[in-house]
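Our platform keeps sequence and structure together, in a single record for each protein. This encoding replaces a full spatial description with a residue-level series of whole-number codes. We quote a single record here, exactly as it is kept in our systems:
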Amino acid sequence: MTTRHRTKGTSLAKGPIGLIGLALLAYGITALIFGGHGFAQHAPTGAVHGKTWLGLEVNGWTSLLFIAGGLLLLFGAPMHWAAKSMSLIVGISLVALCLIALANGHGALGVFAANGLTELVWGAAGVLLILLSLLPRVGRKTKHGYERSEATSNPQVVEPGPRAAASDERYGTTVQPH
């Protein structure tokens, strides 16, 4: 009989994705409290202005974007496939917002306030998350163990004989053969 024991290996993506999620969440919460907490919008193409917090221009919607991205990454971080999936989704979203904000000039989609540094952070974080979503597991191993049971070590073939009545003395019953 052959037994196999597989180890899935270590995920290179879970740790960094969790740390980036924690950083996005922490920045989003502090920006919402101390930075811009106005939720004015000029959708879909209007210019949006906010307050500067730690160099980034943020409003309430931008802070919620950082919080949502951080939460998605943190919720996905414990499992390899979920960490990679959330990293890809959040990364593509941040890169898309960066490109829209660059094309729009000031803000993205008339909702998210952004200056040049905010656009740089969105773009860098998005590219990094996309690259992290491509990281594999390492150290996958399969161990094979070969065992011989007593039944396979005896080459004698045993023919089944007529079935006798079986009894179970614990319950006082007898099973008759068919």
